[in-house]
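Hey, I'm writing a tutorial for new members on how sequence and structure tokens pair up, and I'd like a real worked example in the thread rather than a made-up one. If someone can provide the structure for the chain below, I'll link this post from the tutorial.
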Amino acid sequence: LREANDVLFILDSRLELPFNLVGNVHRVDPTLTSRFRMELMLRHLVSPSMLLLCMGSLPPLFVREGVQHVFVQNRYLVDDVPLNNLTIRVRFRIFLERLWLRSRATQVRRFIVQTPTMQLLVKRTLGVSASVLPFIGNVGPAQGSLVHKASKLKYDFLYVSKNL
């Protein structure tokens, strides 16, 4: 990053960060109206030379410019999992988000996932390849001492995933 003016963060208004971000920060309320308003605003903010890193499994809805990278973490959007145990409202939201993702997939330059399982699901569902970039790589016996040292650290985040 060249300077703070080069960075724009669009964050859920509920997200509390323990540090200040360098750059411009826009907060979005977790409502359909607020998200839609931000999507409309975003299409005027993005230029062809911009890199967009979308961490919420969905690319921008109306943006057709810029280099879009999407981190897909919501398995419900790329897998044919039963939704019976979810409320009607959540099922409808997932249905709309699946349509959103499929309709915008051709605009995305790179999909990023954490596991080979998600990589296969993205390929099967969207017909595009995805890069596997795990937070922590596979740890073999030769790296055991690294795991021991890391286990003494305090972690604020844990993402559990299972390769099928």
